[in-house]
Write a structure and sequence with these properties.
CATH topology of the largest domain: D-amino Acid Aminotransferase, Chain A, domain 1
CATH superfamily of the largest domain: DNA ligase/mRNA capping enzyme
Helix content: 40-55%
Radius of gyration: 27 Å
Bound molecules: adenosine monophosphate
Strand content: 15-25%
Number of helices: 20
Largest sheet: 7 strands, mixed
Shape: globular
CATH class of the largest domain: Alpha Beta
CATH architecture of the largest domain: 2-Layer Sandwich
Length: about 575
Amino acid sequence: MTRMTSFKDFTIICERIENISGSLEITQVAADFFLSIDDKELEIISRFIMGQIFPVWSPLQLGIGPGLLYTALSKASGLPVKDIIELVRKNGDVGLAAKEAMADNKKTQSTFAAFDKDDYVLSITDVYMRFLNIAKASGKGSQAARTRNLQFLFTQADQVEAVYIARLAIEELRIGVGEGIVRDAIARAFDVEKDDVEMAYILTNDMGMVARETMLKGIDGLKSMDITLGRPIKQMLAKISQGIESVIKEIGSVAVEWKFDGARVQIHKNGDNIKIFSRRMEDVTDSLPDIVGMIRNGITAKSVILDGEVVVFEDEKPGAFQQILKRFRRKYDVEIMVSKIPLQLFLFDIMYVNGKNLFNNTLIARRQELLGCVSPSATLNVTKQVITCDVQVVNDIYMMALDAGHEGVMLKNPESMYSAGKRGKNWLKVKPLMETLDLAVIGGEWGEGRRAQMIGSYQLACIEPTTGEFLSMGRVGTGITDDLLVELTSRFKDLIIIERGTEMDFVPEIVFEVAFEEIQKSTTYNSGYALRFPRLVRVRDDRDPKEVDTLERIEQLYINQKSRVDRG
Ligand code: AMP
């Protein structure tokens, strides 16, 4: 019998990794650990180490919210829930909060008398089984059962184990290991090529299975993995373009399609068995019987995997995205919703047909396959496509798409393969800039080199209107011309309250309008948010700093943007 690896061994590795900054070294530590455990443990650990409990494709969901986590910690530690919440706030991390809460674990009156903490060693498999119980608990009394399982883990854990149990419970391990590092560690440990590991992962969406098969069968195991109908594969993703002209300059002829404002779906048909997955790989088949019907009636191929966008129309215009979400999340009265919110499907790609994986076929060839297996109807469409290298033609299609109420256009490289899971330059989106934010400038930093005499970057803040407090959201240093920099430097010099080294605080008097790619959660700034790729659009001298965007609006934009993830 093989030795059971303790969960403690895993946490020691996590702690080590947390203190390493170089990804090569992290990969080596992970690879060494992979080699020291058995195949079943490896299946679990290759997911745990990136904060994942179940494979992405699996319908199993852990679903532990803060409420359940705090209750379990409270019961395990004997501290009231409010103290747990306070610890989380103080530490900014559930793991460190759990560590502190469990500091006096020995004093805890264990409800699990049969397992005296001192002679019970948690194994990796135990922890996984408890999480499995939590995911499987359903119906009456399930909440209590879920709490009990988590409480059990905390009661048996030492302080360091508690850190990682808490973080695993919310599926955020915070040790800087993602899919790329796990892929590289598998390759390093079992002496196979990274690309082969990557492809097996794309096809199966199951890092645990990939790791285990590689351990047991090496390259043969990897090569034997293929698409499984009914299990979602990673989708190809799009990048934002630098504009129509520059795309054509770079790739010449492009395949132009409307970019529909809807929700991405991946459809698997295996004979009569039809499954629909959302962008996040949730199985949404039961909520979309109308789409299932379209596929049953309109797809001639026996087995196929299709890529497309579901769109809702209201008075011939694309309807609000929220409407689509109402359909996707629906569990009850599904038929009523089908007639209330009718959907259309626009198919734009095909990844598999009748036993053939089409990843390595060009877009042109895949489109031929797609056209060959769809009989369009009023609701089932193949996205129209024009191949051209004429900027004017693309521009006209772009304008038509916007007029029709859609997001813009997608420009695709006609010769490109289906690069699953990749956000590459073979699918480029052209759409109007996202909305901008008006933010107060509350601080700055002297520039370097050529800009040493200038204030080169500016600390932005939104406002909490009830208290009037400005909350920082990160810096902007892009989009500022040299002339403007000179002007801004002289204006802001008069507003400096205090200087600390190269940094300074300003009286909040000037407002910047800032464009950005995305709003992200952040622990660095006290608003709790940061902007990705911010750039200055203009200085809003017509705005009072007290009228800048509020934290509430930022939160709302963040939520909208999160639900947009379903779109693609
Ligand atoms: P974005 O969500 O801005 O990253 O844009 C990519 C998303 O656009 C995809 O994930 C799809 O959901 C959606 N989309 C709409 N129309 C198309 C199309 N013709 N081809 C590919 N993706 C499309």
